TrEMBL record:
<dbReference type="InterPro" id="IPR011004">
    <property type="entry name" value="Trimer_LpxA-like_sf"/>
</dbReference>
<feature type="site" description="Increases basicity of active site His">
    <location>
        <position position="137"/>
    </location>
</feature>
<feature type="binding site">
    <location>
        <position position="166"/>
    </location>
    <ligand>
        <name>acetyl-CoA</name>
    </ligand>
</feature>
<feature type="binding site">
    <location>
        <position position="145"/>
    </location>
    <ligand>
        <name>acetyl-CoA</name>
    </ligand>
</feature>
<comment type="similarity">
    <text>Belongs to the transferase hexapeptide repeat family.</text>
</comment>
<dbReference type="Pfam" id="PF17836">
    <property type="entry name" value="PglD_N"/>
</dbReference>
<dbReference type="InterPro" id="IPR020019">
    <property type="entry name" value="AcTrfase_PglD-like"/>
</dbReference>
<feature type="active site" description="Proton acceptor">
    <location>
        <position position="136"/>
    </location>
</feature>
<dbReference type="InterPro" id="IPR050179">
    <property type="entry name" value="Trans_hexapeptide_repeat"/>
</dbReference>
<feature type="domain" description="PglD N-terminal">
    <location>
        <begin position="2"/>
        <end position="80"/>
    </location>
</feature>
<feature type="binding site">
    <location>
        <position position="69"/>
    </location>
    <ligand>
        <name>substrate</name>
    </ligand>
</feature>
<dbReference type="InterPro" id="IPR041561">
    <property type="entry name" value="PglD_N"/>
</dbReference>
<protein>
    <submittedName>
        <fullName>Pilin glycosylation protein PglB</fullName>
    </submittedName>
</protein>
């Protein structure tokens, strides 16, 4: 199997390691810093976004993954790739647990020791990072980043492009709107409005 990855930073390195475990034998990277970067995790960085689009005019046997931590950028790139009809696989670590009834959007990644429970629905390009749990009937929009060690109780809803910081927790039934930042270690016990930043226990705006 072959995989092209857009991104060559820290998150991309983790995705490279996961892709190798999933059986991808040929992996190449694209990043806007490609003239400064020779390789990442043993994989060559061969161009930027424009070069990647050109690459796919002849290399149609490659899957593609957008490994960019910035949620807005990741969503924009994924939408462009969707319009081109490219293959955007869901990458699930062998040590993650994903229930059969969960629905994951293309281009999403689920890291090691994470759990996605029954009835969960994820949009495109979600990052479910290491040691996190997404409980029953949670709904995540497009390009949400669930950082390491995050725990979402049942029936939580999170809007597009939101980021839940490392070690944060959200109690059952909470609605978090789009483009929200939940700080590291925060405990969310009430709904959060669009584009708000909340921190602490209980989580609140500064």
């Amino acid at each position: 199997m072959k995989l092209a990855i857009y991104g060559a930073g820290g998150h991309a390195k983790v995705v490279v390691e996961l892709a190798k475990q999933l059986g991808y034998q040929t992996i190449c990277l694209f990043d806007e810093r490609w003239q400064e970067l020779d390789e990442a995790e043993g994989c060559q960085v061969i161009g930027g976004w424009a070069e990647m689009l050109s690459f796919f005019t002849t290399n149609t046997d490659y899957d593609v993954h957008v490994a960019i931590g910035n949620n807005s950028t990741r969503l924009s790139r994924l939408q462009q790739l969707q319009r081109l009809g490219l293959k955007l696989p869901i990458l699930i670590h062998p040590k993650a647990h994903v229930c059969a009834s969960a629905r994951l959007g293309e281009g999403s990644v689920v890291m090691a020791n994470s759990t996605i429970s029954v009835g969960v629905s994820l949009g495109i390009g979600n990052i479910i990072n290491h040691n996190s749990s997404v409980d029953h009937d949670v709904q995540l929009g497009d390009c949400v980043h669930v950082c390491p060690g995050v725990h979402l109780a049942g029936e939580v809803s999170v809007g597009d492009e939101s980021m839940l910081g490392i070690g944060s927790c959200v109690i059952q039934g909470i609605i978090i709107k789009e483009r929200v930042l939940v700080g590291a270690g925060a405990v969310v016990v009430k709904d959060v409005k669009s584009a708000e930043k909340v921190f602490g226990n209980p989580a609140k705006t500064p």
